[in-house]
């Protein structure tokens, strides 16, 4: 099972900070006399964090910059939490900080950027989303010298920023992935809830037009509609199944949220969306857009049908609404890449210049390249949509299995392969080619059995089979002690020596329905249609982005 903002605050319930994220740099850019859309000027402090280093092509264009924008009341620091950075930015992650230059700005009014609570209070300019995006653009272009973005993405408010970026600077990015947002004016229940939050503070006499010296009691009252916005009916029911538990949870949430807020910062942040409305500009977006919402999102409920309807107007737009599962967290699903990572991987692949697989080699298993000598011990690294793991192989454990596995990895067979059978507490299995043509070529290329030398303990890797001498291309990783399989002839040839926590997070909610076991007779559609079938019917399956022999 995987690890269990509108608001970055929702993530406070779900995660802890990562302490091992490398090379996090912080800085600030002072934009002199920044002119706000609704009037007023300010020497604006734009705070930011970055990971990684900028890479440029021969023409000087930046090729690896990724902009990630936070939600209302959040900050860029929220993306350094384990559930996000530990999946995306870690070595082998989809946005590996060793490959990408990650930019995490604090929006105007948030984090360590200029905000009302710095001292101006109620005199702080009433900024808008357009102001916030324009300030970020100036940060990137004038200070960080980023002239192009590989990807623009964001959560909630940051998702809405993504739409604004798309039509305001249409030639500036390769791809857009807004999360938990809608590309229309803030209206209906969404605006009602926002106004309830604002009014709860402003109607409190102790607010004093923003000139208070202690936080007004109305700030606590504003937390009630705020909590409803980020709530997940399923998760709240699971977390608080009795009246007493529900009331205790509510009291705790109010205290936690109110204790992290400033009243003016809250008002300004929520009211900044008042003029947001990408709808008239959607045709101006040039970059491919993949917009992702969750069906249990109380801010952007799926019954509105807005996401699907409006995204169609984007020339290269795709809308996705994730189904409610025990993994989703309502609006906060936007900060759990363990769920939507496969979609991000496909977007990156679709918008990148990639070498085509060597189908000539993959469809000729009789080639001498598939029978060359292999090392006695070697390590294979698998970079997946969930992160990276490594398998160390011992030829002495299962010589024939080790050799077959070595050649499959080295020659690119597993690149793009879906991990289609994940049974919690049992195994994670993969090995059916994305290409039906390749699957057909390998259909009758089974190897003879090896004696069982190493036991099927947790983390061990062996070939799947349907009977004697039927091992082919499919392998499994034991998620538990499966030593009972030893007597059936399943011979491990290696074991996971790094990243077992990644293996444990692989998407398992489809169970056997996504392809099942070899004996189950459910793999026919995968063999006949390849990844096209899995992407259509089981889009949340994790898959292997790249597999290779370490050191070769």
Automatic annotation (TrEMBL):
Residues 1-20 form the signal peptide. The keyword Disulfide bond does not apply. Residues 387-528 form the PPIase cyclophilin-type domain. GO terms for biological process: homoserine metabolic process; methionine biosynthetic process. Keywords: Hydrolase, Signal, Transferase. GO terms for molecular function: homoserine O-acetyltransferase activity; hydrolase activity; peptidyl-prolyl cis-trans isomerase activity. The keyword Coiled coil does not apply. InterPro entries: AB_hydrolase_1 (IPR000073), AB_hydrolase_fold (IPR029058), Cyclophilin-like_dom_sf (IPR029000), Cyclophilin-type_PPIase_dom (IPR002130), HAT_MetX-like (IPR008220). NCBIfam families: PRK06489.1. This is Alpha/beta fold hydrolase. It comes from Bowmanella dokdonensis. The lineage of its organism: Bacteria, Pseudomonadati, Pseudomonadota, Gammaproteobacteria, Alteromonadales.
